[in-house]
Amino acid sequence: MISSMLEIILLPPVMKGFISLMVVSAVFPISGVMILRMNLLQMRFMLTHGVILGGALSLVIGAPQLPVIIAVNLLVVLLLIKLSDDDSGNPGRISVLLMVLTIGLAGILMHKFKVAARDTLSILWGSPFTLNVSDMIIILFIAAVLLIYAIAGFSRMNAVFFNADLAQSAGVNVRLHRTMIIIIISLTTAAAIKLMGALLVDALIILPAFIAASFSGSLKKSLINASLLGAVFGFGGFYLSVQFDLPLSGSISILGGAAYLLVRLRRKSL
Amino acid sequence: MYSLRATTGRDLVFQSNGKWLYPLFELEEHIKRHCITPGDIYLEDKIAGRAAASLMIRMGIKRVRIRLLSRYALDLFEKHDVNCSYDKLVDKIDCRTEDLITAGMSIDDTYRFLRKRAGFIAGLSLKIDNITAGYDGRDVLSGLSLELEAGGQLIVTGENGSGKSTLLRAVLGLVPVRAGAVLIDGKPALTEVAGGKAAYLNQIDNSNRDPVSAEEVVRIGFASKRLRKDEADYKLELAMRRTGCFDLAARDFHELSGGEKQKVSLSRCLCQEPGIFLMDEPTSFLDSGANREFVSILGELLLVEMPTIIIVSHDRGLIGSIGWSVKHLSGGRLSDD
After folding, report:
1. CA distance B325 to A260
2. Is residue A223 within 8 Å of residue A31, measured between CB atoms?
3. Roughly what angle, to the nearest 10 degrees, separates helices A201-215 and A174-196?
4. Burial class (CB in 10 A: 0-12, 13-18, 19+), A220
5. Distance between CA A124 and CA A126 in Å, rounded?
6. Could you tell me the residue range of the domain that residue A169 belongs to?
């Protein structure tokens, strides 16, 4: 069984997908912790819609999907930051506005340029085995940025998460770090979507962070546990997918969902 | 030949040839940094009058040998059971500092006076000049002015909603100041706050329940500074030991009691090494025991660092027990209580 798994992994397209998946599943849950700590779940939905707009645009202009998706998401997030500043720093309302605008714009693009909805909606599912080398490099680069920020900026990030007022009084540049965190979240969401699809990206980013938060007593432990859980879900999902010929994103989601339910049941029984 | 030498058994733990009382202040820092038991130290000093003797006694030194000792110092040593030997006894050491220490001053009073004279005041002056500040176009503070010298202390009282917290938040730049100016150490407050010069002990906030360890909360105090790991660990341990919460370091902050949370938050402020402490209702969730502990920590803070402190509170017990000057905030302005 192990040798047949290895044989499959060593196939070049599978290898690229496997490496990217393992890196993403071990590193990207860190951005899930960021989303939960900064209460940005609504913004994450906006990013998913931004991805659909980016996908539609890439089909219209015939450009590679991942860079266009990332660029669109970055633009949307920068717009969110600018508009939030003008709205007393409330990203929630602006997220809803941009969520509606991006999906509306995607619909218009698809209609006007006669893009097959099926092609755009393929973004909703995603697969690591369709990655090309440049996609892989982009994904690994984003993972490196996330990891470096989480390690080098840990204490400042922790301060911002705990209480922005206290962080500011301790001399932390809250605005700068909030902006950096939001940009990093937008990059990771866009990159993860290529692997997991817009609908199931939460399984890779949010679920491990959710579960880790329920049994970790510190931010550091939350980050480490989320990464470990993400790696387990990624590898387990890959194994299930190969072994039982299941879609990878679905396998990871089921695994993550089952783990979350188990942890909840265990907490209730204690 | 060094003017001051400290040994434990046969080991030399500290020596200095500094002037005036500085070697003793250095020794005090050395003892703290290296966790040396002061009672184990045998101290040799060139001259000791009332000032030096007070510092030695406050450090907890129990055995000293002084070459030139004043009678005042000898009396102090005998009163505090310090084993003292000397080469020459004189009535008085001829020094301006000795003249300024009066017989009625306690060891702590003398210590505070000497630290101030040595320039070891962490406190910064605060000047609030005719400010107007508030939220959403509503002025909570209007034409408010206040001046506090470096190392000064003040309690601000007032009814709920009178703007006590807004006053602290305005100093920190968390509330926009629409008119007037806030100066810390003569410079714009915003610049000084960005440099971590003002620490904020906020009211306990239970809205954020995300897991965070007590240690991580304390580390926020030096989050903006680039410290070596050993330096950061040392600061953290020192601050948490001072408030008696080092054993809570690994615990989830949200699972701590109100008193424990307050100790952790105070440690965070201490780690920041600020010139100004701004404390918002620091005793509102504390039981009487925790309240007493808080007052005692505050006393220690005033003795060692002498920072400038503003406390906003309506806790009559606290106001009575620390005996600071009090101002009352009403109608957006401060008046004497």
Report:
1. 55
2. no
3. 130
4. middle
5. 6
6. 2-269
Q: Which residue has the tokens 């424990």?
A: B260
Q: Over the range A124-146, which residues count as b (16 or more CB within 10 Å of their CB) and which as e? A: bbbbbbebeeebbebbbebbebb
Question: For residues A103 and A121, what is the distance between their CA atoms, to the nearest angstrom?
Answer: 12
Question: Which residues neighbour B1 within 8 Å (Cβ) at sequence distance 6 or greater?
Answer: none
Q: Which residues of A touch B202 (CB under 8 A)?
A: 163, 165-166
B227 touching A (Cβ < 8 Å): no
Q: At B176, which amino acid appears?
A: P
The domain tally of chain A equals: 1
B226 at the A interface (CB within 8 A)?
Answer: no
CA distance A67 to chain B (A): 34
**B286 CA: distance to closest CA in chain A (Å):** 21
> CA-to-CA distance for A201 and A228, rounded, in angstroms?
17
User: How far is A178 from A173, CA to CA, in rounded Å?
Assistant: 9
Q: What is the pLDDT of residues B39-70, one digit of tens each?
A: 999 999 999 999 999 999 999 999 999 999 99
Tens digit of pLDDT per residue, chain A (270 long)?
Answer: 677 778 778 887 788 888 888 999 999 999 999 999 988 888 888 888 888 899 889 989 988 888 999 999 999 999 988 888 765 556 678 888 899 999 999 989 988 988 876 776 677 777 787 788 888 899 999 999 999 999 999 999 999 999 999 999 999 999 999 999 999 999 998 888 877 777 678 888 999 999 999 889 999 999 999 999 999 999 999 889 888 888 888 888 899 999 989 988 887 776
Spatial neighbors of B261 by CB under 8 A, at least 6 apart, are B204, B253, B285
End-to-end CA distance of chain B: 56
Question: Is the CB of A169 less than 8 angstroms away from the CB of B198?
Answer: yes
**Which candidate from A158, A159, A162 shows the least CB-CB separation from B208?**
A162
Check which CATH number belongs to the domain holding A222 and give it. Answer: 1.10.3470.10
Of all residues in chain B, the one with the smallest CA distance to A35 is: B210
Out of B194, B213, B224, whose CB is closest to A217? Answer: B213
Which residue among B173, B200, B216 sits closest to A166, beta carbon to beta carbon?
Answer: B200
Q: Which of residues 192-251 of A touch B (CB under 8 A)?
A: 213, 216-222
State the Cα–Cα distance between residues B107 and B99, nearest whole angstrom.
16
Which residue is associated with the tokens 């000497």? B114
Nearest to A219 among B173, B205, B216 (CB): B216
Minimal Cβ distance to A161: which of B198, B210, B252: B210
Quote the CA–CA distance of B74 and B87 in Å, as a whole number.
12
Least Cα separation, residue A9 to chain B (angstroms): 38
Contacts of A222 in chain B (CB under 8 A): 210-211
Helix (H, G, I), strand (E, B) or coil at B176: coil
